[in-house]
Design a protein that fits this description.
Blueprint: H1 4-22, H2 28-47, H3 49-57, H4 61-64, H5 67-78, H6 95-106, H7 110-133
């Protein structure tokens, strides 16, 4: 089993690094990333992994350009979990493929749900702090 704390830190750093390059708002992108990571974390904690991904697909306006950054890095984090690697769609996969992955390969196993939820929670917390520090 890989060190998931390290995976969370690496994916969060990648989010902070990618944000200004992906968003049309330059430095404001970091503020938007912090806000979006906070909202996504709240959805994850209140409603779960699937709802968090749905939330990230539903973003509009300035959050719409940064939601794919978070989604890509959350999928990258899940790629490090043994047993999921061969099933994870590409980071730029269509919504139905990504949501289908969660339905078929994560949500059917309570241990996997809890593992992914914890990994995503840590990743989003680190992303919030990383964005704040940037």
């Amino acid at each position: 089993m890989p060190n998931l704390e390290r995976v969370a830190a690496q994916c969060a750093q990648a989010m902070v690094h990618e944000a200004p390059q992906e968003a049309p708002h330059g430095n404001k992108a970091i503020e938007v990333l912090e806000r979006l990571a906070t909202k996504a974390l709240g959805v994850l904690q209140q409603q779960g992994v699937y709802a968090c991904m749905l939330f990230l697909y539903s973003r509009t306006s300035d959050e719409a350009s940064l939601a794919p950054v978070i989604r890509r890095q959350l999928l990258a984090a899940a790629r490090e979990v043994p047993g999921l690697t061969e099933h994870i769609p590409a980071g730029n996969a269509v919504q139905s493929a990504v949501l289908g992955f969660y339905t078929e390969h994560v949500l059917g196993d309570l241990d996997m749900v809890l593992l992914i939820r914890g990994l995503y929670e840590q990743t989003l917390i680190y992303a919030r702090y990383g964005a704040k520090a940037a």
